[in-house]
Amino acid sequence: MSKVAVVYWSGTGNTEIMANAVAEGVREAGGEAETIVVSSFTANDMNGYDAIAWGCPAMGDEVLEESEFQPVWDDCKGKMEGKKIALFGSYGWGDGLWMREWEKECQELGLKLACDCVMANDSPDDGAREACKTLGKALV
Q: 76-112, pLDDT tens digit by residue?
């Protein structure tokens, strides 16, 4: 059975809703999912999972959250080779630049994303929640 960490940061609850939908998709596909707030995750935890779904909303000038999420992401980058990876998050302005930059960073690191990234404008609607479940299934 595939063990998946759904690691996320959420300021308004929108990305948390998405994280829960990703975990639901993992379970529907027969995997084991654990949702983890990013402040409770470290690079040492990476070895315990077959796949990682990373969730972070757009912040500031369309960047990842800088005080909690970015440091954990930076610490974990070197331990993701060979793992299935997926990205998701919400935004309230802009056009998804933060997600495109995040995907580009993954490509530059040689990481292969298991599926297309999922973005939700503000609170995730039914379509975004279904896309998150599909993302979760792709990680199993």
A: 999 998 899 999 999 998 899 999 999 999 999 999 8
Question: Given this model, what pLDDT does residue 72 score?
Answer: 98
Let me know: does 6 contact 34? Beta carbons within 8 Å: yes
| Cβ-contact 117, 86 below 8 angstroms | yes
With beta carbons less than 8 A apart as the criterion, state whether 73 and 54 touch.
yes
Q: Which two tokens stand for residue 38?
A: 């990013």
Q: One-letter amino acid identity for 4?
A: V
Q: Which residues of 36-56 are buried (b: 16+ CB within 10 A; e: fewer)?
A: bebeebeeebbeebbbbbbbb
Full set of structural domains in the chain with CATH = 3-138 (3.40.50.360)
Enter the tokens of residue 26.
């993992």
Task: Quote the radius of gyration of the chain (alpha carbons, Å).
Answer: 13
Residues 118 and 106 sit within 8 Å (Cβ to Cβ): no
